[in-house]
Amino acid sequence: MYTELFKLCGFEAEEIEKEKPRIDKAFKIVGIGIEDIERAEDRIKKYFDIELIGVRKVLGIWLKQLIDLALAREERKSLVYICFPPAARHGLAAMLTSEEVYCHSPEIVIDVVLGQIFGKIDPILEAAEEHGMPPGLAMCSLNQARLGAIVNGIAPIPNVTLTSGQFCDQSPKTDELLHEVYGIPNIFVDACIDSPWDEYPEISLRRVQYYAGELTRAREKLQDALGFEISEEARTEAIRGYAKLWWAMQQVWELNRNDPVPISQADLGLFYWMIACPERRALQDGPQIIGTLAREVKQRVDEGRGVIEKGAPRVAWMASHATDPSIPRMFEEVGLAIPVSVFGWISPIEMVKSKFTAPDERIAEAELRFGFYHSTSAAIFRFKEICKAWDVDGLLDAYSFSCRASSFYPLMIKRAMEQELGIPVLALECDLYDTRDYSTEALRTRVETFAEMLRAKKVAKE
Amino acid sequence: MLVAGVDVGAATAKAVIVSDGKVVGQAVIPTGDRIVVAADKVTRLALEKAGMWRDDFDFEAGFDYVISTGYGRHGVPFANKAVTEIICHAQGAHFLLPATRTIIDIGGQDSKAIGLDERGNVINFVMNDKCAAGTGRFLEVMAQVLGVTIEELGPIALTSKNTCQISSTCTIFAESEMVSLRAEGKSREDLIAGIVKAVSSRVAVMGKTVGFKRDVVFTGGVAKNVGVKKALEEEIKMEIVVPEEPQTMGALGAALLAKAELS
Questions:
Q1: How far apart are CA A441 and CA A430, in angstroms?
Q2: Which of A445, A452, A454 is most worth mutating to test chain B (most B CB atoms within 10 A of its CB)?
Q3: Which of A51, A145, A165, A458 is the most exposed place for a label (fewest CB within 10 A)?
Q4: Contacts with B165 (C-beta within 8 Å, 6 or more apart), sequence order
Q5: Residue A197 — φ and ψ, nearest 5°?
Q6: Do the chains contact at B124 and A438, CB–CB below 8 Å?
Q7: For chain B, which residues lie within 8 Å of any Cβ of chain A, measuring from their own Cβ?
Q8: Parallel, antiparallel or unpaired: strands A78-82 and A160-164
């Protein structure tokens, strides 16, 4: 029933056979039937570049992550649900310390696998809307997926949640709800998002130390909940493993500087979400899969092949949609090349060698240096840095309707880019986590016009 | 050289025929539920008005070039190319009124503010997102609630002495607000003026992100509403120019672009 699907996702026949009992059990829990499988096959062929082995393999990692999530209670002793970014490395460290621990953000798995691959995320969001996160109240759909997956029994009840309001208040509020309804204990990393407007790219020592102190306190609580110590060695290894994934992806981003752009953001999104919130499989197999992708993309560059015609206007965009690959495909259909995502590329500011040695201080500094977890001014700074570094013709700021953190500054970004850099910006209200909040076809008019504007500007410049 | 611009919008379909560089015919009809039929019918009607319709007229072979625009642009089978209505409105307005630097376009389903350069190129634009507030649909619903035709809204609004404050921007909420204001005894004129002001405020706020520069030209079906024009002028504190046929501006721009394709 699912052999073809798993082959499309880079599985060998023996691996499918070996994994069959787990797949059967997990698909039953998730409620995946023949229609879903056929739909997934169609979507994969339509939206993803399955000519590339790296893309097939990353799709495979995602399917494995769904199976791992559904069977986590059965296969592991302790389950920890984390929110990214601040808790991701703690989660990795816990998993590196004990094989008995499952640690992940279920909402990311649900969004990518049920959203992008199966096109079946609405029932999860509707379940959340019926159980405490109602529609029409600016609830983040990423967090709705966390609640909905638990309500629908796809994500088992965890032993503990580890979360932070460092980027947004919705994660801790969702976990408070989970505590109230399901009695799940919470561990919070206190936030320190408020900052002087012009501080970035400097990061104040006080903020790093406060954040690091909170991370340490949260780790100690996590250790108490798990019943074992997370060693410094495991923490250092987690930091190293996380960084290794991000650095590996930089090779691919750099190849995307070529004209024509060799790979679509629809495909790169699968990689972005894998490294944004990595778990055991991403850590183990991720670097090799990214390496495969980099070799394949390099070959395309050498052959002068791309996903859009040479000379197309080049735009940066904010971040890959977690649930919907049709958006980047539509951008390409109207003739826009998207070499870089603001969330995906590591800017030179982040490449500064850390002066801190303690693991929690290094994590805190890295998160704050990323910009988006520092302040609005830092987010704007980062947009500007990337647009300058990539010499793009425009910026597509496709922000999330229900994301209180990122929907706050599109106009500030537009003003900064247009006035300071002379780069046209299209602020596009959509949603990275909920396809019900927009229509791809309604957005097409804006994007087509923007593409036409950029083409005319390019011609005038030449 | 015979070219056509066909604008299939959410509410109406428009066509403009240009022969040897001159506009010779234009037409507007309701879009209905079938884009192909609407495109066919409105183009035929425009040809009839140009005195060029023959029973054996073949849309594929009869025109030298056709550009389609509007929401239904990708569904016009005889079009050689599809171009967005934003680009087409800019071209149309620039052709008729070369001093145009800002277009306010309010159609049936959406509203837009468009910034132009001196050659008619779009340099900035903004559109309403996902919501009927600030569109012709909003006016249509309110006209129904108040038992007047959409054409009557503008002239009635101008007779108001005490404009009502409509606080809801959502079409559905504004409808219920309208019912309670009527129950309070507010006059029809004041209610209609309030509706017109609500649309204008919404569009003016949206357009500020593009910036209003002279000459400001008002296009789309709602531009025929004298009440909205006056309220918009008050909002942006600038005179607004309404062309003779504001509704066919997109189709005209499409026809001009079709002509340019051949030159």
A1: 12
A2: A445
A3: A51
A4: B194
A5: -60, -40
A6: no
A7: 71, 83-87, 121-125, 127, 129-130, 209
A8: parallel
Three-class DSSP category at A69: helix
- What is the SS3 assignment for B252? helix
Angstrom distance (rounded) from CA A426 to CA A447: 8
Query: What does R_g of chain A's alpha carbons equal in angstroms?
Result: 21
Beta strands in B60-128 (DSSP E): 65-69, 81-82, 102-106, 111-116, 122-127
* Residue contact A453–B83, C-beta within 8 A: no
- Is A452–B84 a contact, with Cβ atoms under 8 angstroms apart? yes
Contact assessment for residue A174 and residue A142, using Cβ atoms and an 8 Å cutoff = no
Tens of pLDDT along chain A (462 residues)?
999 999 999 999 999 999 999 999 999 999 999 999 999 999 999 999 999 999 999 999 999 999 999 999 999 999 999 987 667 788 889 999 999 999 999 999 999 999 999 999 999 999 999 999 998 888 899 999 999 999 999 999 999 999 988 888 889 999 999 999 999 999 999 877 778 888 999 999 999 999 999 999 999 999 999 999 998 899 999 989 999 999 999 999 999 999 999 999 999 999 999 999 899 999 999 999 999 999 999 999 999 999 999 999 999 998 888 999 999 999 999 999 999 999 999 888 888 888 898 888 988 998 899 888 888 899 999 999 999 999 999 999 988 888 888 888 888 999 999 999 999 999 988 888 998 888 888 889 999 999 999 999 888 887
d(CA B90, CA A36): 45
Angstrom CA distances, A160 to A83, A85, A148, A191, stand at 12, 17, 17, 19
Residue bearing tokens 């015979």: B2
Closest Cα to residue A315, out of A462, A452, A407? A452
| A129 neighbors A135 (Cβ within 8 angstroms) | yes
Report ipTM for this prediction.
Answer: 0.84
Q: Mention every residue, 6+ apart, whose C-beta is less than 8 A from residue A263.
A: A49, A52, A252, A255, A256, A293, A297, A300, A307
Q: Which residues of B touch A449 (CB under 8 A)?
A: 84, 86-87, 122, 125
A448 close to B (CB below 8 A): yes
For residue A419, is it left (φ>0), alpha (ψ between -120 and 50) or beta? Answer: alpha
Instruction: List the Cα angle A109/A111/A116 in 5-degree steps.
Output: 110
Q: Give one DSSP letter per residue of A152-201, joined into a string.
A: TTSSPPPSEEEEE-SS-SHHHHHHHHHHHHH---EEEE-------TT-TT
Handedness of CA A40, A41, A47, A53 (dihedral sign): positive
HSE-up (13 A, CA, CB side) for residue B200: 25
CA A419, chain centre distance (Å): 30
Let me know: does A398 contact A323? Beta carbons within 8 Å: no
**Alpha-helix residue ranges (DSSP H) falling in B111-248:** 136-146, 150-158, 171-183, 188-207, 226-236
